[in-house]
């Protein structure tokens, strides 16, 4: 066997290996794609149920997404996803994906659930880059601070009270880290303001 024959055979072998590998990758992707999608949906629904009790709705929230026009009150210059909760055909609550700009290390992504009466049923920070041990206390795994918004509204909490205590408001700040809670308080308040300004349109969806 001369060297050219050997090279040809090796090339054919490598080509077959590449084709088989690509085929296996494609097959694996196809087999796992639906599982991954299902897991994402289940994680999403689990997060929703943490901030909006499951007995408040009877529709499929994962399929109830709408895109809201960009609005500074929602912290984004792009359309923002929201999820419409219904029970017996009536809108009972809206779950907003909103952004809290101005965190210590950048933006924070939140879920804020507001019922049809304009009351926050729950909120969660779902993504952030805050400093461990300080600003990351907005994460429920680090502290229960984020639970303090449940039950709050613009009716029972004045705009002045929608601040951290250092600024004359009602919400605690973290020792050594006021910037992060200040950003989250502002974002939840602004989401309530957005809901109030657009309540009729939101509840008629």
Automatic annotation (TrEMBL):
<dbReference type="InterPro" id="IPR007329">
    <property type="entry name" value="FMN-bd"/>
</dbReference>
<protein>
    <recommendedName>
        <fullName>Ion-translocating oxidoreductase complex subunit G</fullName>
        <ecNumber>7.-.-.-</ecNumber>
    </recommendedName>
</protein>
<feature type="domain" description="FMN-binding">
    <location>
        <begin position="103"/>
        <end position="195"/>
    </location>
</feature>
<dbReference type="Pfam" id="PF04205">
    <property type="entry name" value="FMN_bind"/>
</dbReference>
<keyword id="KW-1278">Translocase</keyword>
<keyword id="KW-0472">Membrane</keyword>
<dbReference type="GO" id="GO:0010181">
    <property type="term" value="F:FMN binding"/>
</dbReference>
<dbReference type="GO" id="GO:0022900">
    <property type="term" value="P:electron transport chain"/>
</dbReference>
<comment type="function">
    <text>Part of a membrane-bound complex that couples electron transfer with translocation of ions across the membrane.</text>
</comment>
<keyword id="KW-1133">Transmembrane helix</keyword>
<keyword id="KW-0597">Phosphoprotein</keyword>
<keyword id="KW-0997">Cell inner membrane</keyword>
<feature type="modified residue" description="FMN phosphoryl threonine">
    <location>
        <position position="178"/>
    </location>
</feature>
<keyword id="KW-0249">Electron transport</keyword>
<keyword id="KW-0285">Flavoprotein</keyword>
<feature type="transmembrane region" description="Helical">
    <location>
        <begin position="12"/>
        <end position="31"/>
    </location>
</feature>
<dbReference type="GO" id="GO:0009055">
    <property type="term" value="F:electron transfer activity"/>
</dbReference>
<keyword id="KW-0288">FMN</keyword>
<keyword id="KW-0812">Transmembrane</keyword>
<dbReference type="GO" id="GO:0005886">
    <property type="term" value="C:plasma membrane"/>
</dbReference>
<keyword id="KW-0813">Transport</keyword>
<dbReference type="InterPro" id="IPR010209">
    <property type="entry name" value="Ion_transpt_RnfG/RsxG"/>
</dbReference>
<comment type="subunit">
    <text>The complex is composed of six subunits: RnfA, RnfB, RnfC, RnfD, RnfE and RnfG.</text>
</comment>
<comment type="similarity">
    <text>Belongs to the RnfG family.</text>
</comment>
<keyword id="KW-1003">Cell membrane</keyword>
């Amino acid at each position: 066997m001369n060297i050219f024959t050997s090279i040809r055979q090796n090339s054919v072998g490598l080509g077959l290996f590449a084709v088989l590998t690509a085929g296996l990758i494609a097959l694996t992707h196809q087999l796992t794609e639906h599982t991954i999608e299902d897991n994402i949906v289940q994680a999403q629904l689990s997060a929703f149920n943490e901030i909006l009790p499951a007995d408040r709705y009877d529709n499929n929230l994962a399929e109830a997404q709408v895109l809201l026009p960009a609005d500074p009150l929602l912290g984004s210059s792009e359309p923002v996803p929201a999820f419409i909760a219904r029970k017996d055909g009536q809108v009972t609550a809206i779950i907003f994906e909103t952004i809290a700009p101005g965190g210590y290390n950048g933006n924070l992504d939140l879920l804020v659930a507001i019922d049809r009466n304009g009351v926050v049923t729950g909120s969660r920070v779902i993504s952030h880059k805050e400093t461990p041990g300080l600003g990351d206390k907005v994460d429920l795994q680090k502290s229960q601070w984020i639970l303090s918004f449940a039950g709050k509204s613009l009716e029972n909490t004045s705009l002045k009270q929608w601040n951290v205590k250092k600024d004359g408001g009602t919400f605690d700040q973290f020792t050594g880290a006021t910037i992060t809670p200040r950003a989250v308080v502002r974002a939840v308040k602004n989401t309530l303001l957005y809901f109030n300004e657009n309540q009729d349109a939101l509840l008629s969806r």
